[in-house]
Amino acid sequence: MRQEEPAPEGPAHAGPVRFGVLGPLRIDGGQAPGPAKHRALLAALLLSAREQVPVERLMSVVWDDRPPASAESVLRVYVSALRKLVDGIRTVPGGYLLDVGRDDVDCHRFERLVTEARRLRAAGQVVEAAGGYTAALALWRGSALADVESSALRRAHGVPLEELRLTALEERIRLDLRLGRGAEVVGELRALVGAHPLRERAWVHLIEALHQAGRRSEALSAYQDARRTLVEELGLEPGTELTAAHQRVLSEDPPPVTAAGYPQAGWGFPADAAPPIGPGFAADGVPPVGRGFPADGVSLGGPGLWAPVDALPPDISDFAGRRAVLDWIARAVDENASAPVHLVLHGPPGCGKSAVAVHAATRLEPPDGRLYAVLGARPPSAVLEDLLRSLGCPDRAVPPVLDERVRLYRSMTARKRLLVVLDDAADEAQVRPLLPTGPGSVTLVTSRSSLAGLEAARAYELGVLGEDEAVALLGGVAGPERTAAEPEAALRIVRLCGHLPLALRIAGSRLARKPGWTLDHLAGRLSDERRRLDELSAGDLAVRGSLGLGYRGLPDPERRLLRELGALSAPDFAPWVFGADLEPLAEAGLLQSRGLDEAGQERYGWHDLTRLYAAERLRDEDGGPARVLAVRAGAILERTRQARESLLPAEPGTGRTEAHLPGHPALSLEGVPVQGHPGSSLPGYPGSGLETGWLRQEARWLSAERRFLVASVEDFFRAGLYEPAWRLAFYLVPLFELGAHHDDWHATTATGLDAARAAGHRHGEALLLRGLADLHRAEGRTEAAAAALRAAQPLVEGLELARVTLRLGLVEADTRAAERAFLRALRVFEEAGDRRGRADALRALGAARGDEGALVESLAAYQELGDPRGEAEALLDLARLHLAAGRHPQARDCAERRLKVNRRLGDRLPEAVAQLVLAEIAQAEGNQEAAAAAARAALETFTSYGDHRNAAQARSIRQATG
């Protein structure tokens, strides 16, 4: 059977394009087929329109070179489904053919228009050729085959099409330069070199455009940027063409211009090219005198010339949320109608600052127009040139130096009510020359820094989206019906993106491009931290790229510091960890100040995606976190051990028998120096305030650092630093016990045990088992506590075995067996001279026997050791002993002394325990009102700490006395 001859092509511009592959797949302006394999099949037929495509090639395309055994029969089903959407699919020998005009498919029309533009260029028809290239490039809607999942098609067609697109763009820009349009294409060329920094010809054109526009210093700077990029990335010096462009800038003055401000012939521009003509200009392009321009053509801004300008980029159609900041902007504008208003939106990379600024700007209607400029690393002089041109200043009237440009800009805006959006500002110095001066003018600045030094400016820190706003944004991009169908998966994506608008927009774009994906599938892909930044990339949007801009703009020491912070998994931290100033990273928007913590330290946090980026840079540039953590481990452990002593002074096994503020004697909580302590007779001793203030401050420090230290246990373990991991877990036990942080206690103990066992450290394992037993006992799980202690017994001997024995007595149901355990432990402690162990054993023995003498003796021992928390526990046991014996005044005295200690130390949960005992005493005395008040106060604290057992007891008293 003979293949039919294709019909002749239609006219060169025969109607609109019907099929699109230069972007997401498109049919007659509608949606492409849903299933991914259907899209790949249709794309293959479109790319070979009017050509026979063999079945083997189609199977290779659809199944990416791995077709199943049933591929040929399944392919027939796919073709049948496509025929319901697309006319002209014909079966031919050995394959299929799509019988549509090649000009109906955007890629073929693009190739034809480029060929035609090249023909016109060769014929010397420069203006027509430039128009042809423009028409060809206008067919692109995104990346070629953007939503087609076929690497075979991308290799064979996508990559060549993208390369032709870039080449056509460069050829069109070259023609624009010949036509004297250098100033018009500078912005486009900056975007081009930003996207393709290794493409030398793009740099050549940028240098030539800047030179042609009279911006010689920027042209020279662009050459240096190009050279640095090529050397750093490829290890190569610039090629001949780039070097020649540089030499032309060095050796030549700016191109001479005619009186009309147009480049003269002989500089690569046709002599008959039309001069610029616009509102307020004469036919030769010269602004007439008397229309707001003086004879010298410099001072601008007269009323005859002005026409409102709107240079804003388009608003985002799927903008969601941000009601609070939009209202803040609106209020600030309304409240200051008679003076310039300067507003700064700042926040981390990707939080949507630019989107908010543009959206807010579209809602405002200044009478004299809206200006927009992207600042980035550009100098104020270059930005001013663009702003002046937007205001109608002709090219030749733009002054050559910054000061003159500032004066002209201020003159032009002095009597105008403008809205100026300055996007991505680096610092205050860059912004100040760009502020309009007209009363009622508004400047909206976006920056990663708060620009605190910008005079008379108000700042708003833009954080991440709330949960509802984030889901709305995801649905706006991916389709609200998809988020509604999988609400739980949508929430998972939102949380894995950290509520960051840029990440959510990328996630939504990926879902929109892949209609066959479920939200649950994408959530699964994002859940792997090692791949999350790779997954959050779509087209020219990428979280990694956004973070990279800030990172590459940092000096070397700050870049190194950010990488080192990547060793941490903690959500926030204080500067002491690295002994470095973190403010420069906050100014760059990579960290956010969280204010002062309860210990008075400035804390810094970061977005989870920033953390992943820092960890990635640490891994790629420094080999990973182990070295960084090994260097910091000693300081973290020592600082934590010192603070632990404020909770548990004179801990057995540390080599210390007492703990006190360095340089001062130990004190009891009543402010009396411990008898016999060196220095106790020194005159002028300050009393207990200093001592308890230090203890309270150390406890606050531990509390403030809790999340950081908990995360550090896991960080050490993952890095193979087992010794620091188990020691830190052990040091944190008193903090968890004091604050009832049972979840953290469980997590760090489990990791610490694994670390001690991995290190082969039997004593460390026993210490962690002892801490685990304390946790189980606090939760009322005495059998589990006993099991942990029995597991510790074979691992230790001597004093540590005595401490395990003491704890076994505390969970022993048999009173006599418990007493025997306490006596054995007491004997070992006394023989070894362990005063802390002796105090603990005496208190346990006194509570078990109801022995007031033993409890009083333990109280004195804690006071000798300078241990106020041990003293408080002994007072509580004495209060309970007196209450059980009906000695209510003595019970109240001990309980109130205990309460005083807790309050001076700031220990809220133990304070509530004392209040509960006071409630029991008042109830026993028949004072219902006092009992109810004490129980109510205790219940509030127990509830906030999640202490359900004590909360139930307090609730019972309150109900009985209420």
Can you walk through the features of this model?
It contains 42 helices and 17 strands. 43% of the residues are buried. Among the domains are: 1-179, Winged helix-like DNA-binding domain superfamily/Winged helix DNA-binding domain (Arc Repressor Mutant, subunit A); 192-255, no CATH class; 309-461, P-loop containing nucleotide triphosphate hydrolases (Rossmann fold), CATH 3.40.50.300; 467-517, no CATH class; 546-624, Orthogonal Bundle (Arc Repressor Mutant, subunit A), CATH 1.10.10; 880-962, Serine Threonine Protein Phosphatase 5, Tetratricopeptide repeat. It is of the alpha/beta class and 962 residues long. Mean pLDDT is 81; it is low at 1-13, 254-306 and 653-688. Strands 7-9-10-11-8-12 form a six-stranded parallel beta sheet, with helices on both faces. It has a three-stranded antiparallel beta sheet with strand order 1-2-3, with no helix packed on it. Strands 4-6-5 form a three-stranded antiparallel beta sheet. The termini are far apart.
SSE blueprint:
Layout: E1 19-20, E2 26-27, E3 30-31, H1 36-47, E4 53-54, H2 55-62, H3 71-83, E5 89-92, E6 95-98, H4 106-122, H5 126-137, H6 151-178, H7 182-195, H8 200-212, H9 216-234, H10 240-251, E7 309-310, H11 323-335, E8 341-346, H12 353-363, E9 369-374, H13 380-390, H14 402-413, E10 419-425, H15 428-431, E11 442-447, E12 457-461, H16 467-478, H17 480-485, H18 487-496, H19 501-513, H20 519-526, H21 532-535, E13 537-538, E14 541-542, H22 543-552, H23 556-565, E15 572-573, H24 583-587, E16 592-596, E17 602-605, H25 608-622, H26 626-647, H27 688-704, H28 706-718, H29 722-731, H30 733-739, H31 742-759, H32 762-778, H33 782-792, H34 798-810, H35 815-832, H36 835-849, H37 852-865, H38 868-884, H39 888-905, H40 908-925, H41 928-945, H42 948-961
Parallel strand pairs: 7-9, 8-11, 8-12, 9-10, 10-11
Antiparallel strand pairs: 1-2, 2-3, 4-6, 5-6, 13-14, 15-17, 16-17
Helix pairs in contact: 1-3, 4-5, 4-6, 5-6, 6-8, 7-8, 8-9, 8-10, 9-10, 13-14, 16-18, 16-19, 18-20, 23-25, 26-27, 26-29, 28-29, 28-31, 29-31, 29-32, 31-32, 32-33, 33-34, 34-35, 34-36, 35-36, 36-37, 36-38, 37-38, 38-39, 38-40, 39-40, 40-41, 40-42, 41-42
